[in-house]
Amino acid sequence: MTRRYLAFVLADTRRNWKRLAVSSIGVIIGIWAFTLFFAFGIGLDRFLEGQVFPWDKIVVVPARASMDTCPDDDYLDDSGTFGTLLPFAPKTRKFSVITDEVVNIIKQRPEVREAYPKMKASFPATLVGGRHALSLPYELKTVLFIDGIPADEVVHCSSEEARQDMALPSSKRRCEVKAPYSFKDFGKEDSSLPSCRTDTDCPKGTFCAINARPGTSTGHCYHPIPAIISPYLLEIWNGSVAPAHGYPRIDPSSLGNFLGLTVRVYLGSSVFSTMKGSGHPIMRRFQLVGVSDKALDLGVTIPMGYIKRWSRIFKDSGNARPGGTPAHTYSSLVVRVKDKRSISQFLAFIKSMGLSYEESKAETAGLAVTIITAILLFISIVMILIAAINIAHTFYTIVAQRRREIGVLRAIGASRRDIAALFVLEGTILGALSGLLGITLALLTSTGVDWILASAVPDFPFKPDTVFSYPGWLVVLAFSFSVIAAVIAAYLPARAASAVEPSEALSVMV
Amino acid sequence: MAMNMLWFAPMEEMSEPLIVTENLRKSYGDTEVLRGIDFSMKEGEIVAVMGRSGSGKTTFLNVLGGLDCRFKGKVMIDGLLLRDLPDVRLASFRSETIGFVFQNFQLLPHLNVLENIALPAFFTDFGQDPTSRALELLEAVGLPEFADSHPAVLSAGQKQRVAIARALFNGPKLLLCDEPTGNLDSATAGDTVSLFRRINDEEGVSILIVTHDTIAARAADRVLEMKDGLLEEVTGD
Ligand SMILES: Nc1ncnc2c1ncn2[C@@H]1O[C@H](COP(=O)(O)OP(=O)(O)O)[C@@H](O)[C@H]1O
Ligand SMILES: [Mg+2]
Fold it and tell me: A268 pLDDT exceeds 60?
């Protein structure tokens, strides 16, 4: 194939450009839709898995007898922290609750990057506060969900480390609690603090705990209970609560102003029902010390030691919610896996241990996105195929109209292959240009959509900067797809053109 | 003199005929158009084949030029047996050995005169600069001022000259001309005939003309007639 031959192909393409342009509109639109939908699918999937529902997060929970027990599990020692050693393979020990032993076994699994247990509060709580910090006309009063995690599972940073951390992109930041705050159980230190009647009797930074027990008016000073909240809660606050009620937003830059904020929390007190039995609410100051995705989505997370002690108190006083987790077991175990591909293997292991796991939202959402993306892609592929038929038709028309000309080319020395290549190359040029145009249009469209999203759509939780993702392979795929579709479309007419005997091609009457 | 540099048809010993056919037969369906033609032509000859319209002249020419391979019998051109040749080989035979001149010129309307003449260079590994070669040929046929014109503005005679220049582009041994004067008035036809003579004289290009026109036949060294699917020598012109 000589350079001059290619020049001839180019000249011929230019000669046909109007009808080729018309016939390639379909491919351009098809590639546009294909690229856009695909980029949207990938973008949405990444966004959901990365930010809204972390893909690597698996919450292991005890198997609930009412829901998860099947006949095979009947021999399980249901009362037991000890589990049952099965006589037959698989030789995995079975557990019905999550104990320290379970935590250790799971932590040693090769798929596991990190694992920490959680303990839900088995008593209700009500939060009161926020008036000053959030400049509200009244105190917020709301039901508060609390859980606990081991205090040392939270990443602490010095102010210097925190500064370096802030310079990293948000996905790489590790600091969860920054100096001078600390996520620790002050239980032991509190016992050395003086007794008090009011907060003013206590050293700076500590508060007076007077439990509303009839006849008592003195209490003990204590450090406020460190609490962390989830980025999800912040998003909900910023995206829904704050705009709806006119409260201030809390974004990363202003977060510092809100750290250290304390609120009163009435433990054992529910906004939904009055206390019953002999239980008395305990009032404690909670202090916001950090933001971490280890925290409860809608609530606060505190060092687990507090939960253990308070659960005992409320259990003894008969004020515990029915069905609460026994104090020596955990309500769940949060696991972050290393690799997406090892998830199913890990989940199978969890099942074999007799435990269960929360339905992964990432999986559900991801599946929905995948299905929708697949449908959209299917539609765009059908569009491209129809467009390819259109191109084939155009080439057939061109070939029919130029039969005689093809005969002349054959007579002066063009082989069948030269003639076929002429149309296939024209198809290639057509496909390449259509592909570039379609991809460019898709990029423009997604820029436009992102712009509308940023400027015209009101904030919502986890509102992303972009819902599209264009990995390099997608661009290559869309481009190749366009070229291949056009080449295939041109191939059959090209073969038809080259199959004709030159003598017959020349004998056609104009 | 200039033309000596343009056309390089080798002047070999004229021992072996340039064209040999033996018992050449060709049918369209049930109608046999060529019924066993034995024909031979020496290198350097100009031969005219006359015959009524529909007698099979074009069919004969197409077979000789490798434009139609569905025939029976033996056809040998310049030592090459035109049978079961792979398509690429046949294409290079057409481009190197044969030059075609058609009755209706068959110029490509979207290319200018120069590009039309240089058309064969698009499909072969043409060594020199095709444009200067095309210009030389255009001068040789006496139309240098029309290099950039499109065929539409040319007269029939001018178109025929451009078509002849194109046929000569690759320096063929044999020109196959199908009714070359069919669309020309008698004066222009005469010019074309003398152009053929000149090409033959100066370059030794062999020329086979099929025509029903006696003017065209005047150029020929030898005239044959196609009749009932057979070729007969015409004696005593
Ligand atoms: N492609 C074809 N299919 C069927 N018949 C054909 C075809 N080409 C030519 N013929 C017939 O073959 C005969 C010879 O045609 P042709 O070689 O074109 O004659 P000429 O060139 O002498 O006018 C005519 O009867 C014509 O109708
Ligand atoms: Mg004819």
Answer: yes
Q: How far is the CA of B60 from the centre of ligand 1 (A)?
A: 10
Q: Which residue in the set A2, A408, A417 is minimally distant from B125, CB to CB?
A: A2
For residue A282, what is the DSSP state?
E
Q: CA A355, A358, A363: angle at the middle one, nearest 5?
A: 125
The strand pairing partners of B210, in sequence order, are B49, B178
Q: Residue B19 has which token pair?
A: 């064209």
From B58, B122, B170, residue closest to A8, measured CB to CB: B122
Which residues are within 8 A (CB) of A394 and not within 5 positions of it... i.e. 6 or more apart? A19, A20, A22, A23
Rounded to 10 degrees, the C-alpha dihedral A190/A193/A194/A199 comes to -70
Atom of ligand 1 nearest to the CA of B57: 22
- Nearest CB neighbour to B68, from listed A404, A418, A501: A501
Q: Cα(A417)–Cα(A491) distance, rounded to whole angstroms?
A: 12
A151 residue type, one letter? A
CB neighbour list of residue B42: distance below 8 Å, 6 or more residues apart: B14, B17, B18, B206
Please state whether beta strands B46-50 and A356-357 pair in parallel, antiparallel, or not at all (unpaired). Answer: unpaired
Q: What is the pLDDT of residues A111-134, one digit of tens each?
A: 898 899 999 888 889 988 878 777
Query: What local confidence, expressed as pLDDT, does residue A271 receive?
Result: 64
| Span A285-304, average pLDDT | 91
pTM for the whole thing? 0.69
Contacts of A413 in chain B (CB under 8 A): 91-92, 94-96, 120, 123-124, 170
Which of the four pLDDT bands, split at 50, 70 and 90, describes residue A508? low
Ligand 1 atom 16, closest CA = B56
Q: How confident is the model at residue A492 (pLDDT cuts 50, 70, 90)?
A: very high
Percent of chain A with pLDDT over 70: 85
Can you tell me which atom of ligand 1 is nearest the CA of B53? 23
Distance from CA of B208 to the nearest CA of A (A): 16
Whether the pLDDT of residue A225 is over 70: the answer is yes
Structure ipTM: 0.90
